[in-house]
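Entry 14. Ran structure prediction on the chain below.
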Amino acid sequence: VQLQASGGGLVQAGGSLRLSCAASGSSLSRAVMGWYRQAPGKQRELVAIINSGGGTNVADSVKGRFTISTDAAKKTVFLQMNSLKPEDTAVYYCNAIVFFITYWGRGTQVTVSS
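Output, structure tokens:
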């Protein structure tokens, strides 16, 4: 499984960004896909995940502001980020778990200015 994230950038507080993660490989229809982030000096943390049935789980820190979704083929995972705050600044990583094997994509930088 290969993952390619895109869509990061610089945005002012209160703005929006949409991250995309293009996935390729086998058994993606059974994957749990997610987004994690890592701010400077902090540990990587879960932002949101979506399972093969479409169920989602979103971190409390972004609940109501961020939404995770996939396309119909489940080969692209999106993270819609609204009402961005400076504390959302981090490198965002796409993640997939397929048959208990974890895959990571390269991160994409999100910077929110105050």
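The chain has no helices and eleven strands. Will compare against last week's run tomorrow.
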